[in-house]
Amino acid sequence: MPVPSNAPLSPPHSAVHEVLSLVARQVGLIPWPVFLVAALIASIAMRSYPGWLVIGWLLMVGGVLTLRWRLLTFPTDDADDEALAPALRKAIVLSGVNGVTHAMCVFFFPLMTELERSVLTMLLAGLSSGAVGSTSGHPAIYSAYAVPVMGGLALAWLVVPSNAQQGWLGTSMSVLIVMYLLVLMSLARGNYQSLQRAVGLRQKAFQLNRELRQALDAAEHANIAKTRFLASASHDLRQPLHTLTLFSAALNTENLSDRAQDIVGHMNTAIRALGEQLSGLLDLSKLDAGIIQTQACAMHLAPLLRQLHHEFTPLAHSKGLRLVLTCPESLGVHSDGVHLSRVVRNLLDNAIKYCDAGTVWLGAEALPGQDGLPDRVLIKVRDTGRGIPSEHHRQVFEEFFQLDNPERDRTKGLGLGLSIVQRLSQLLDIRISLESEIGVGTQVTLNMGAATSMLPQTPAHDEPEASMPMCHMLVIDDETEVRAAMKALLTSRGCRVTLAASTDEAIRLAADDPPDIALVDFRLRAEENGIKAIRKLRQLQPSLPALLVSGDTAPDRLREAQEEGLLLLHKPVSADTLLQAIRLALEEED
């Protein structure tokens, strides 16, 4: 059984260590039973021999038992076989002394009756049989005891004249005792071999557990390193991309020629594609950080799927595909609409991306429960695309895995879509199943809980986009290009902009000319950061609205912003997203 990675690993003991531990444990348990057997033998012998002689032998037996109890101790846990050699020799010698002492009772044979000799034989044979277990069958320790006892017993039957008429009795008993000794020694050897095999298995299990722990530790370190790398690389790439996005948005407000407008359009397409890829990395960082929260509620499914159908229809038509939607109007689910929309959106994007001709279906159906009412809802995304080989069905949900994209075409993304689908589905308690056949197509099914009760639908209507309010904005960023791009965009929308490269400069400028809102980068120079800067600004203006902008997607940054109650915008921020966030922040303040 594998050992948890946080549990201490203790190497298993050797077979010799186990035997010595067992012998040390047994010497504290068996003295009284063995001494009672010796007392029974003494009581039989006292009928024919002087009491002082029998009592002397009995005291000798008790003395040896006491000596073994005092001298045999438990070996230390860290002792190896070489260090245990003296203790093993001591155990062998004491076992031999114990055996010789017990064997000395055969000197009582000559004056005993046949019945008394038989009883003595059974008692000594019983002690020899029990020693197989109490010594774990160690060949040397067991032989040191059993050979004197059983050998002396066999010799006594052979040498001492029998009182019976049958002269063959003594010889037969001697032969039988020797045969029984050989059987016991064979059993002892098998017992010890079983112990050695058990110890060997424990040592192998220990080695496997140690290797497993090392592999788990390596995997954990690799995962941490991956998260740090993604956060660092994402931040370094987002900075110039954010600047390009702002300058491009500002450029769109200028009077440009048709050729220039066309160039700007292609530039925006490239910027948008790169931004989407970085957003995929950001989603993984958020999921790794564990800060994505769900707000599940009963919701109508048809409006959500219609919106996605409308969103992806132009993309499907551009590839010559049909995008078909089937969803009952009354169908409802209990889920988080935002995250569920992201899951289905990624599935649709993937289906259209890898479908070269034919149709993509987006549909939903209800599975009735025992009462006949909808119990589960299935959302299916099916295409007539290339299909996925069965051996890759699991891999397609792994990060950065892509089929048919060895050249890493950036238009096909980074291979994060299905990985995000799987993680979000686990968060939403959605079961995913995939069916695919090469040359036929692929179907992904989302199995989720149906809504037990639904609110009446309200007709949706588009609200006109609010214009940008005239305001004074304080932009704090240590990158000169970002400050210039922010100013170009915001001034083109009629705002007054004050730029600061550090917290101290921002405090000084805000004291002279209080801003209406602050747009602050998270990473600033030295020990500064955007959260600390906002705190200091709010010491001057307690109710100052503020937005945090960052290219850092590390989980810790996400948690810090969330705990501070600040809206965190991740670079590159599109002009529409930035302006919408500014409007909302100013409206909340009003």
Number of domains: 3
CATH C-level category of the largest domain: Alpha Beta
CATH superfamily placement of the largest domain: Histidine kinase-like ATPase, C-terminal domain
CATH architecture of the largest domain: 2-Layer Sandwich
Could you list the spans in which at least 5 consecutive residues all have pLDDT below 50? 1-8, 405-416, 458-466
- Average pLDDT works out at 77
Order of helices and strands: HHHHHHHHEHEEHEEHEEEHEHEHEHEH
Adjacency order of strands in the biggest sheet: 2-4-5-7-6
Q: Give the biggest sheet.
A: 5 strands, mixed
CATH topology of the largest domain, by name, is Heat Shock Protein 90
**Oligomer type:** single chain
How much helix is in the residues? 55-70%
Which overall shape is indicated by the principal axes computed on the Cα atoms? Answer: elongated
* Count, helices: 16
**Coarse structural class:** alpha/beta
Q: Cα distance, first to last residue?
A: 62 Å
**How large is the radius of gyration?**
43 Å
Question: Mind sketching the topology for me?
Answer:
Layout: H1 15-26, H2 31-45, H3 51-71, H4 81-103, H5 114-134, H6 139-159, H7 168-252, H8 258-289, E1 297-300, H9 301-318, E2 321-326, E3 332-335, H10 337-353, E4 358-368, E5 374-383, H11 417-427, E6 431-437, E7 441-449, E8 472-476, H12 480-492, E9 496-500, H13 503-512, E10 517-521, H14 530-540, E11 546-550, H15 555-564, E12 568-570, H16 575-589
Parallel strand pairs: 2-4, 8-9, 8-10, 10-11, 11-12
Antiparallel strand pairs: 1-3, 4-5, 5-7, 6-7
Helix pairs in contact: 1-4, 2-3, 2-5, 3-4, 4-6, 5-6, 5-7, 6-7, 7-8, 7-12, 8-11, 8-15, 9-10, 10-11, 13-14
